[in-house]
Amino acid sequence: MSTSRTADHLNFAYWVPNVSGGLVTSTVDQRTDWGIDYNRTLAQHAEQVGFEYALTQVRYLGSYSAEYQHESVSFSLALLEATEKLNVIAAVHPGLWQPGVLANLGSTASELYDGRLAFNIVSGWLRDEFHALGEPWLDHDERYRRSAEFLQVLRNIWTTSPTEFAGDFYRIRNYTLKPQPKKVPQLFQGGSSTAARFNGGNYADWYFTNGGSIEDLEEQIAEVRQHADAAGREVKIGVNAFVILDDSQEKAEERLREIVINADTKAVKSFKKAVHHAGAVTNDQKGMWTNSSLEDLVQYNDGFKTGLIGTRDHINAQIEKLRSIGVDLVLCGFLHVDEEVQEFGEKIITPLREQEANGTAADGSAQGAAAEGANADASAESTPTLSHV
């Protein structure tokens, strides 16, 4: 196995708006809705235009401009009921879920929805949530050790019989799940830290990271795949990105400037203070948000950094760069969610699928040539950065 590879098929996901407030903490208009009717329709539209995945957020307290929230797992089941092919990833917190209970739920949901429910294991960044619910708040690396055990317990219950597990956080004694799932739910490890990279490579199907530059992402991906190689397994890579698609680079970057200029600075600073305890306290300074500026955090998973902001040619070229460094899935955030999900599907995903069907996307050299052409056509364009605002 090699730590360097290019995905033949690049998947796309969108952020489910199951919490209020939108995906940017700004007073600019965001045409979105956290209600179930809007989200059912959105899921159907996303499926129709080629999105394969949707990620449902997890919040237990109002925070960071999201005052209201729907629980992630139950909301995900409703979206699965409304769709036929879409995979829905429910974010869950170890420490607030018991893994054996979640394994049972996941097994039943797999049977009901043909294996389309997945789980994103997020170790937690908001200390107040754990305190409010009477659960201890662990140090960063301890939270990720707990997540490592959580991932192992889930997979063991789904695939071994009986299950025995003796860890520091979970102990499973001679437990058998009947029936075990015919399709084992996919497991995502969320995070960017050294501990998250270890978990992703060793225990998860997917490593899910914040947005970042090509160079930063390439370094993370290499480390995750080194862990996977050492463990004799494969892992896929998902990356967050905020999308602003416009007919000129200047218009797209102006929309970005407008978002940042109108940021809710008080809420962003509050979030920055909270996540310092979640990521920046890691010993090697590789935690999530460690190198995030206040402007970056206006989109709370560093989505601006990934560079999907500009014309169709610019975004296509940037997507090809992501594919070339080993990204398998791009998680897209939008300002006006339903209408922009449909636009992205029609203008970006559909042509890409046509290329794949013709063999160009699967052929590394041909796809690379296409990316070079897109770059040449957009020679006056550059990947937008927040230094512009």
UniProtKB/TrEMBL annotation:
Keywords: Flavoprotein, FMN, Monooxygenase, Oxidoreductase. Residues 361-382 have a biased composition (Low complexity). GO terms for molecular function: monooxygenase activity. Pfam families: Bac_luciferase. Residues 356-389 are annotated as: Disordered. Residues 12-328 form the Luciferase-like domain. InterPro entries: DMSO2_SphG (IPR024014), Luciferase-like_dom (IPR011251), Luciferase-like_sf (IPR036661), SsuD_RutA_monooxygenase (IPR050172). This is Dimethyl sulfone monooxygenase SfnG. It comes from Corynebacterium zhongnanshanii.
